[in-house]
## 1
Amino acid sequence: MMRLNAVACVMATTVLAGCGPTGYETARPAPCPRITILADGADLTRYRPGAVPDLASMTADARLIGFQARCDYTDRRRSVVAAISAVFEVERGPGATGQAAVELPWFIAVTDANDSQLIDRREFVTPITFEGNANRVRVQSRPVSFNFPADERLVENHNVRLSFQVTREELEANRRRGPR
């Protein structure tokens, strides 16, 4: 009897394995460009104007900690739209007495595969508000869309770089401090 059950199981498995497609085909997902955060521009520390840049005068310390991205075909699969949102974590500093908001300047740049040609660059300012007595907040920007030709090699051979818009002094401070 046990042997008969084993044979029946093998036969049922063989029959089920032979079942073909159900008529529904899943489309390949749209390709996405390579998206990264520039290490030298991932931090932004601001101080009170005219003050010595130290902990007591720091008004905000922000980090570009990630991003959300979605790539979809559009226009009958002739192009791909990449919608990208930056994710920030911001801490209000001791020098921000009386300030409930800060503005974060940042940009997205699109380059070719070798980073030898700048194709597109857009600048943004994301306002951050600290509610009540909160000193730390995590915020996601609104999505920014870029269109690429649908040929997969063309989409995947683009780099998308996110970074804060930093001054020369802020860039040098980030390089001295190193990644956090």
Note: The mean pLDDT is 84.
## 2
Amino acid sequence: MSTNKVAEFTAPGMSNDKASDAISILENRMVALLDLQLTLKHIHWNVVGPNFIGVHEMLDPQVEVVREMTDTIAERIATLGGVPVGTPAAIVERRTWDDYGVGKALVSDHLGALNRVYDGVNADHRQAIEKLSDIDPVSEDMIVSQLADLEQFQWFVRAHIESSDGALTK
């Protein structure tokens, strides 16, 4: 369900073809971040066990920052002449990964699974950066900035599941 470029305009100095390519990449990142913010909130509601409160409280700021990232990407899509679609059906239809499968569970179970979610989101952000470098430096810069925050969030998660010798326990 790619709406891609629909307007007759784009950012000045950018071709419609490059705008369309950038929009396609940004749509993928927007869907991933919409899914991530919902997953983070799901974990926030369903995490239990030792260190519950620390993890519970760690996740809400991540949700807020990821929500802002999503908004920034949606506005960039519109700036380039596209239509950002963030409905639940569009998220499910366009995502290329499995749904988060952990329900009510211990901190270590959720954070192990969340670490794997961040692996995918962050790796895909890096691929988007590579593709955008030849298409749109403004969008590239935006995704680079987001990746810095996403990698820090993953570090926060990993700190909970890391052993003293640096190995991940989950």
Note: The two ends are 35 Å apart (CA to CA).
## 3
Amino acid sequence: MFAVRKAADRGHADHGWLNTYHTFSFSSYRDPRHMNFRALRVMNEDWVAAGQGFGTHPHRDMEIVTYVLEGALEHKDSMGNGEVLRPGEFQRMTAGTGITHSEFNPSTSEPVHLYQIWLFPEANGLTPSYEQKRFADEERHNRLRLVASRDAAEGSLLIHQDAKIYLASLDQGQSVTHSLASGRHAWLQVLRGSVTLNGQALATSDGAAISDETSLTIEATNNAEVMLFDLA
């Protein structure tokens, strides 16, 4: 069973310095039909203008994953981390008992295009922590590369939730298959290009909630990049 979330149906706000789309209710966008899917609470697609960014702000009791598609994002936090996130790199932050951080586009001319993803943690009050890691293009070329998991398997980032996050870059006509264990659910987010999901057409920035399926086949109808969440 699939419930497709079309890109054009998402919440949207254009603040000038920030152009943002919300798959789930966030900030001033509220829709009781789209609050979360399983542990997945936020799926924001953002474009941040050159020289602009999110000022220092707090988080707590949330697993925050950030992925940059184009440009660069400078991160600073109260744990002492100061990094620049670039395409192909994932960042994971456990907010736990509380952190503050800022995110800034250091470019003087180019916007940064990113996804910011929040998952509910498996427990509140965790010790805050941070990771950043690059996953080579060849590791996800026409295959699903595990990039985050509860046990940091296969060199993936550690997330404190019964979830696995995969990334794949697919050439047109190529496909990948993922098996879902009994009782598991999934979310597919199309980052670029277009695909079919078990025959269901999905375009750039579309998402799909998946339940009561045992096998997922994702085929690229154009060159595509997708993120797949395997969720309890």
Note: The first helix runs from residue 137 to 140.
## 4
Amino acid sequence: MVRLITHNLLACHAKGCTTNNFPLEFKDVQVVLRESEFNPEFLRGFMPKIEWPALLGAARELGDTSLPDQLPEMLDDDFLKALHHVLLEIHVEEGIMICPNCQHNYPILNGIPNMLLAEHEIA
């Protein structure tokens, strides 16, 4: 499933595409919201792995403005619930992710991103 927790870890790996290849941009997406169990301990543990500007940009690209511009110093329950919603409950079902550098398209079908590259695209 393409959720923003996954999207925040994906970069383009096409041959020669080594700079400005993250984050991938969304285009023509269909978004579905699916509730999931709130786990504040998981979120606190995952925080160091999050690229905040990329997450914030992707969330806003998908129409969610619940996260603050800056990562707060205090990770209270209100913030963690908003983070949980953005990372785990927003699902991109259909669409395309596009590399901002080489413009390579990664299609998303039935919630699954196709990150495979053709042989001539492999670095």
Note: The chain has a mean pLDDT of 95.
